[in-house]
């Protein structure tokens, strides 16, 4: 398969083309697409080679928080130019919109199969900031669930604020303070489905994972909650802490709620590299 980004796309990443983007108004920006639609189109352009979705990025203000990528549109272009034979691929599993933010869960072929969450911030209809967290695709967990399967049905749009507040309280009470006796205030023990590659369904699976960590001198410490984003029955949190042997880590957790309780969970945990390895100065969060 030929590189879906195409040589034409790579060529448009030179300085003269970026200057042209800065000085012109792209027709695509005038279409009545939602911000979520624009993000999905941008990610799908990895598969199609379409160049139009690049116009959804503001070339003058694009802030990059993937620490392996240089800042700005130029950094994005450099990644595209280094695509392996056959290019990158993206399968958007879930996409949600919260105010000026769009967040997605995507299965990538990006230097190998990856599970990822992406967050995009918009201003005036263009993407101006991007965060993400990626992990290699893992085998199904002890309950047979993958990092991607499960419900995709968006409901309860009138309960977005309520569900975001519930998840934020869960992070603060259970994961920060460790008040495990209150866990059934947040998780439905009869319905809880787990997509973490190492953890089984239900509260028993959660407890077994915590016991394993304790017995083996491992840690899972949530220290800072940076963002809570949601739409309807889905809520994504971006947190910072330590994982495994104490490495600085980023935790992206996606929760699905029913009747005010968490019933499904997906996550991506990745280590934060030392600052000497960063390709931009914007930080992970």
Automatic annotation (TrEMBL):
Protein name (database record): SnoaL-like domain-containing protein
Matches recorded under InterPro entries: NTF2-like_dom_sf (IPR032710), SnoaL-like (IPR037401)
A Pfam family that the UniProt record links to this protein: SnoaL_2
Highest rank taxon of the organism: Bacteria
Source organism (scientific name): Croceivirga thetidis
Gene3D superfamilies (alphabetical): 3.10.450.50
The SnoaL-like domain, residue ranges: 167-265
Taxonomic path: Bacteria, Pseudomonadati, Bacteroidota, Flavobacteriia, Flavobacteriales
